[in-house]
Design brief:
The protein is mostly beta strands. It contains no helices and 11 strands.
Length: 128
C-alpha cells in the first residue's frame, strides 16, 4: 500500500517555474514506478511524466518535453516535477501516481490504468 500527498502547486505567471513534490508513505516506495498526470477543466486526465523505479529512466509527454523534469529521491520517499517556462495551457490539477512494475508491467508509463495509487492532486494555475 502506498499513500501519496502532492504539494507545491499555486499561481504563477506565464514563463515562470514551479516545483511539485509528492511524498509517499510505505517502505516499498523505491520499487514503484512513479508518474505525474494532470487534468484541466473540462478535459480528460493526461499523462505528463514518469520515472522508472530502477533505472531512473524518464518519460515525458510531447507537450512538456524540454520544460518539465521528473526526478525522485528514494531516501526521502519523494518524487518531484520541476516545471519551467510554464504556459497558460499547463493550468490543471496535477496528480502523482505509483505503478507496480511487476503487477502492471503490461501497461505503458503513459497509460493511467497501470497506476494503482493516486494522490489527491494539487492545483497549478498559469496566468497569461
Amino acid at each position: 500500500q502506498v499513500q501519496l500527498v502532492e504539494s507545491g502547486g499555486g499561481l504563477v505567471q506565464a514563463g515562470g517555474s514551479l516545483r511539485l513534490s509528492c511524498a509517499a508513505s510505505g517502505r516499498t516506495f523505491s520499487r514503484y514506478d512513479m508518474g505525474w498526470f494532470r487534468q484541466a477543466p473540462g478535459k480528460e486526465r493526461e499523462f505528463v511524466a514518469a520515472i522508472n523505479w530502477s533505472s531512473g529512466r524518464t518519460y515525458y509527454a510531447d507537450s512538456v518535453k524540454g520544460r518539465f523534469t521528473i526526478s525522485r529521491d528514494n531516501a526521502k520517499n519523494t518524487v518531484y516535477l520541476q516545471m519551467n517556462s510554464l504556459k497558460p495551457e499547463d493550468t490543471a490539477v496535477y496528480y502523482c501516481a505509483a505503478k507496480d512494475p511487476v503487477l502492471r508491467g503490461r501497461y505503458s508509463y503513459y497509460d493511467e490504468r497501470g497506476y494503482d495509487y493516486w494522490g489527491q492532486g494539487t492545483q497549478v494555475t498559469v496566468s497569461s
